[in-house]
């Protein structure tokens, strides 16, 4: 076969010509360049390679492929750099053979590499930043990857134009990157914003963990999208507590907070059905409820105790109603993948369906389509590889986790246990549940390995 035709099968004429010229000089380098180019095309948008895709290939993909032979990975990066130079992509070529690439490839410690990788991505300016709207994952669907590439391309244009600074301008750069990311995510495609498209991608991604989880999301799709807006009423207790706290308050010698905080509870009691059934929560004094709220907010890292004072975290100082709501929706369960968060998600999914729950054996008979959150949580945990001390998951072992989630909802002033009864659920509680599930999908860390987990 004539040398000029050797690379004409799977690449365009310009690339084929560059590879043929490279092959004439050094066949081994050309072979490495072909391999790297094919890998680059697999992770690049249809329009061609971007800075983000070159960085991902050289800093992560080739390193992972040749984990036991970093010299091989480095050789392929250098070969790709030579090909890119011949194609007139000098800036991308410089990335491929940069000191940053070499250092990342030869970093063997996983934790050290992960930290260096994140730092390098941040320094490059083209990696979509995490925002209040979404936290990007190490793993995603092909549709989400296309959205990430669209954002990265926008950031790359801004970086080349000199919009991103260094040194004292780093804070301005971070704000500008977040602004550009938001602008792309609000772009509409096929009748919905790209942020809502990311939400659909996340539902697909998390549904891949188990068939039970996939079934849990079924019927909630419209609600998850509409839960971009949640009534501020559900966060009134948290908002009033933070407003009362201000810059901080003294913790009394008996471990309580000043009596003024009692008003936070008294002014924000959630609606409760008339008449208290025997399975209601035990009565708790107002002062005790204040302490419970303080401890829960401390667990959420919203407040902390310092030298005899309770003070707010810097990120929630002077928080308004919008910020208090955002904090409640996102920080109650956080971003972890744990048995506790799975149990809470199961509870919220049942609430989101508007079914209600009865804790009274003599109460209403459940219908065939009713779902017990404890059984749902136990099934998800079992399907996703969780065990308890090596034993199979049983509903009785999950029940305390569901009860704890119900207790949190009471402490936060969202709903009482009687308020979860059939016919007693309010629209606010249903929307709140959908809102938390939405935030989990957009921000929770997707587990790479889920088998054989214990708690």
What does this structure look like?
The N and C termini lie far apart (62 Å). The model is unreliable at 1-5 and 361-368 (pLDDT under 50). The protein is mostly helical. The protein has 3 domains: 3-124; 129-208, no CATH class; 210-455, no CATH class. Helices cover 55% and strands 4% of the residues. It has a 3-stranded antiparallel sheet. It has helices spanning 13-25, 27-43, 51-65, 70-86, 90-96, 99-105, 110-124, 142-160, 170-185, 194-207, 211-217, 221-226, 236-245, 262-266, 286-299, 321-331, 339-352, 373-383, 395-411, 427-443; strands at 188-189, 192-193, 249-250, 303-306, 309-312, 386-387, 453-454.
Quick overview:
The chain is mainly alpha-helical. The protein is built from 20 helices and seven strands. Strands 3-5-4 form a three-stranded antiparallel β-sheet. A two-stranded antiparallel sheet has the order 1-2.
């Amino acid at each position: 076969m004539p040398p000029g035709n050797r690379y004409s099968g799977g690449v365009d004429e310009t690339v084929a010509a560059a590879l043929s010229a490279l092959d004439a000089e050094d066949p081994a380098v050309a072979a490495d360049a072909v391999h790297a180019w094919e890998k680059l095309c697999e992770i690049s948008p249809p329009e061609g390679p971007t800075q983000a895709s070159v960085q991902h290939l050289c800093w992560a993909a080739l390193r992972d492929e040749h984990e036991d032979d970093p010299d091989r990975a480095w050789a392929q990066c250098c070969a790709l750099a030579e090909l890119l130079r011949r194609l007139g992509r000098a800036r991308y070529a410089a990335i491929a053979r940069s000191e940053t690439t070499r250092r990342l490839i030869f970093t063997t410690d996983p934790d050290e590499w992960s930290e260096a990788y994140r730092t390098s991505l941040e320094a490059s300016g083209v990696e979509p930043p995490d925002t209040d709207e979404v936290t990007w994952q190490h793993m995603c669907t092909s549709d989400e990857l296309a959205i990430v590439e669209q954002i990265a391309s926008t950031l790359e244009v801004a970086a080349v134009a000199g919009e991103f600074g260094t040194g004292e301008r780093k804070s301005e750069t971070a704000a500008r990157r977040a602004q550009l990311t938001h602008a792309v995510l609000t772009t509409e495609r096929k009748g919905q914003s790209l942020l809502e498209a990311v939400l659909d991608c996340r539902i697909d991604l998390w549904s891949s963990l188990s068939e039970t989880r996939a079934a849990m999301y079924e019927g909630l799709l419209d609600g998850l999208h509409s839960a971009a807006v949640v009534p501020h009423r559900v966060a009134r207790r948290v908002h009033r507590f933070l407003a009362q706290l201000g810059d901080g308050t003294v913790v009394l010698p008996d471990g309580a907070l000043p009596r003024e905080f009692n008003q936070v509870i008294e002014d924000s009691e959630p609606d409760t059905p008339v008449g208290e059934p025997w399975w209601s929560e035990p009565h708790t004094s107002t002062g005790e409820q204040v302490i419970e709220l303080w401890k829960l907010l401390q667990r959420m890292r919203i407040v902390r105790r310092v030298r005899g004072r309770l003070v707010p975290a810097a990120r929630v100082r002077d928080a308004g109603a919008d910020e208090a709501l955002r904090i409640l929706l996102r920080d109650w369960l956080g971003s972890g993948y744990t048995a506790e968060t799975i149990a809470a998600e199961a509870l919220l999914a049942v609430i989101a369906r508007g079914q209600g729950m009865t804790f009274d054996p003599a109460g209403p008979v459940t219908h065939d389509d009713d779902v017990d959150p404890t059984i749902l949580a136990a099934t998800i945990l079992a399907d996703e590889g969780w065990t308890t001390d090596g034993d199979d998951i049983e509903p009785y072992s999950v029940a305390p986790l569901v009860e704890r989630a119900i207790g949190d909802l009471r402490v936060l002033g969202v709903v009482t246990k009687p308020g979860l009864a059939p016919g007693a659920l309010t629209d606010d509680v249903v929307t709140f549940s959908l809102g938390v599930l939405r935030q989990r999908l957009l921000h929770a860390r997707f587990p790479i390995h889920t088998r054989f987990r214990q708690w």
